[in-house]
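Entry for the shared binder. Reason: the reviewer on the internal report wants the predicted structure included alongside the sequence.
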Amino acid sequence: MKIERVDEHLKEKLKDPYFRELYELEEQKLKIVKALKYNHEVVAMMGDGVNDALALKQADVGIVVSQASDVAKETADMVLLDSDFATIVHAIEEGRNIFENVRKVVLYLLSTSFTEIILIGGSILLGLPLPLVAVQILWINLFQDSFPAIALAFEPKEKELMNESPRKKDTPIIDSQMKILLLFIGIISPGLLTMLVIVNLKRFLP
């Protein structure tokens, strides 16, 4: 569908979050979906009839109930088997929780890996003995990192999760805040470990 055909007045009206109006015709439903997508919104469309097929197809997520027509079911992305609108809310909540848990796991694994890279690379550049051998790195990656990562992946939902604003479609898993945190952990952790190694070497060396 060409964006030039979107009704300009409707686009402006849909920018208002308090704007509510019911449309029954297929063309009007399709106009709403196209206008919302033109305003860079993520659009979920619910329908059950044959006349909803075009709007369901155009939306980012097409949702139908179990009693919907076969044409609507084939066009939709999701079928609500219990025909309960609350299921959509629960699905959104679970999706947000999965996204946040994936972020936690990625942050944890990258922080430990980044620390190892800086620690070993810095030791090589400074001519110091390697602080970790291959078996120790294997132990860290397979055993020490695995169980905390699994725990983070199945962490329960936060109570205020649904009060957060919706994310944009292009939101990266690793945002700028996580990059700063990774850099901070990557610099501080090797520094502390290097200090411990030097202190221990001074104890045992004559």
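Summary line for the report: Strands lie at 44-47, 61-65, 78-80.
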